[in-house]
Amino acid sequence: MSPSVVKLAPSILAADFTRLGEQVREAEQAGADRIHIDVMDGHFVPNISMGPVVVKALRPITSLPLEVHLMIEHPIRFLDAFAEAGADSMLVHVENAVNLHRTVQHIKVLGKKAGVVLNPATSPVAAAEILPDVDLVLVMTVNPGFGGQQFITGMIDKIRRVRRLIDQTKRDIELEVDGGIDAATTTRVVEAGARVLVAGSAIFGSPDGVVAAMNRLRTALLPVFPS
Ligand code: DX5
Ligand code: ZN
User: Fold this and answer.
1) How far apart are CA 9 and CA 168, in angstroms?
2) Ion ligand 2 neighbours, Cβ < 5 Å
3) Whether residue 87 has its Cβ less than 6 Å from ligand 1
4) Residues 197, 199, 202, 208: is their CA dihedral positive or negative?
């Protein structure tokens, strides 16, 4: 295995919004695998961020998949709008999707990839029954709502447990992590089984720019995959 099995998903929450298009293009040129868009409603999480209008604005300027992380109540109400705006995948939290199976099926009916998200205090078991229907499981490694928070170390063991559950299905389900991912934490989450890394501050908040920041993340992974 080589470091290229690990995908990087820059989170635009930490981008400079006065030049969002430019920042996304920079990330694409630097080898990003997808763009992570954090949607917050001020109810499910204590912050408000972006909606379908941002997805629509970014759709024509990048060929990268747009991944929408829905930190909102009743996500099912907004799936059509995000699909129309150009989202490629939609991730819903298991904690608030009352009809999780229906929500996931609706994402698939729209022809999009479906993912489920686990908050730090949510057991992997909460995702077990829906695993046959999803393309991705996202383990939150901070409490959702804000960028720039500290990685919660206890999540390493949870990532391992989610990895085992996924492997048992024999299905090709991606294991993604989100929150506090930087050059130091990246190796630990990948060793535990994560293969898609969301990073906001470590990419867009880096003083030496997006390209240097993404190279730093990839370089940090080299010892995990000795050639
Ligand atoms: C937090 C969001 C994250 C956030 C990560 O609620 O889901 O995607 O942008 O930011 P960093 O990488 O700065 O922890
Ligand atoms: Zn996110």
Assistant:
1) 25
2) 38, 69, 178
3) no
4) positive
Question: What is the pTM for the complete model shown?
Answer: 0.98
Asked whether 198 lines ligand 1 (CB < 6 A), one says: yes
| pLDDT tens by residue, the chain, 227 residues | 778 899 999 999 999 999 999 999 999 999 999 999 999 999 999 999 999 999 999 999 999 999 999 999 999 999 999 999 999 999 999 998 789 999 999 999 999 999 999 999 999 999 999 999 999 999 999 999 999 999 999 999 999 999 999 999 999 999 999 999 999 999 999 999 999 999 999 999 999 999 999 999 999 999 998 87
Q: How far apart are CA 137 and CA 127, in angstroms?
A: 8
Report yes or no: 27 and 4 within 8 Å, Cβ to Cβ.
no
Ligand 1 touching residue 10 (CB < 6 A) = no
CA of 12 to the centre of ligand 2 (A): 9
What is the domain class of 3-13+15-224 according to CATH? alpha beta
